[in-house]
């Protein structure tokens, strides 16, 4: 049903391919609802950039809602898509959730920041790419697009929320931006570039 690939024409920012891994089913427990999760990877145009790894979590009982969850710090990991602490959304609330590592791994050296496509992915493109891939998979899974889609983020994710509000407002019905890093260049990016030069 989900397939193994998504046509690049379905993604609103440039990618060279989108591959989908085998879905994984998790049965319900006393504290969590049943869900299916699938991982995917979007290959860059520039071979010097890294793929964007993403995940989509499909609740067994869907409320027609979806939420893209933003990252934190300099990203580099897929955010927690399961909900729980702090009232976060997830399969227990019947919300399909998705997010990405923004195109790099937190554990690797920050030299990825010297690649234009990689820094554009962090800045804005990964949000659109992840949204479009996830929406395609949600439509394949449930046979329809979400009735309501949110972007929810804190810190780096809060900045991402403001970015999607500016760049891709038609993709979302609601955007929640908590404590956004709005002075991103001086607060986050400059120290990384200084470390590279040192």
Task: Give a summary of the structure in a few sentences.
Helices cover 27% and strands 24% of the residues. It is α/β, with parallel strands linked by helices.
Q: Please describe the biggest sheet, giving its number of strands, its sense, and whether it closes into a barrel.
A: 8 strands, mixed
Fraction in helix? 25-40%
**DSSP strand (E) fraction?**
15-25%
Structural class: alpha/beta
- The Cα radius of gyration reads 16 Å
Number of helices: 3
Cα-to-Cα separation, first versus last residue? 50 Å
Poorly predicted regions:
none
N to C succession of SSEs = EEEEEEHEHEH
Could you walk me through the main structural features you see in this protein, from its secondary elements to its overall organization?
The structure is a single chain. The chain is of the alpha/beta class and 198 residues long. The protein is built from three helices and eight strands, in the order E-E-E-E-E-E-H-E-H-E-H. Strands 1, 2, 3, 4, 5, 6, 7 and 8 form an eight-stranded mixed sheet that branches. Strand 7 (148-154), helix 2 (156-167) and strand 8 form a beta-alpha-beta unit. Helix 1 packs across helix 2 (156-167). The longest helix is centred in the middle third of the chain and has 27 residues, at 116-142.
């Amino acid at each position: 049903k989900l397939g193994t690939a998504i046509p690049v024409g379905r993604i609103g920012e440039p990618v060279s391919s989108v591959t989908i891994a085998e879905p994984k089913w998790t049965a319900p427990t006393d504290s969590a609802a049943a869900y299916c999760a699938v991982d995917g990877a979007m290959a860059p145009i520039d071979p010097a950039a890294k793929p964007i790894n993403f995940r989509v979590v499909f609740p067994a009982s869907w409320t027609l809602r979806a939420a893209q969850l933003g990252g934190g710090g300099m990203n580099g990991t897929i955010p927690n898509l399961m909900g729980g602490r702090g009232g976060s959304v997830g399969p227990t609330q019947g919300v399909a959730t998705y997010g990405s590592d923004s195109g790099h791994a937190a554990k690797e050296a920050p030299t990825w920041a010297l690649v234009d496509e990689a820094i554009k992915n962090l800045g804005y493109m990964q949000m659109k790419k992840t949204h479009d891939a996830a929406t395609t998979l949600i439509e394949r899974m449930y046979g329809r697009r979400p009735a309501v889609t949110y972007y929810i983020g804190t810190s780096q994710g809060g900045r991402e929320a403001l970015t999607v509000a500016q760049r891709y407002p038609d993709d979302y019905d609601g955007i929640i931006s908590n404590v956004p890093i709005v002075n991103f260049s001086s607060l986050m990016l400059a120290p990384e570039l200084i470390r590279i030069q040192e």
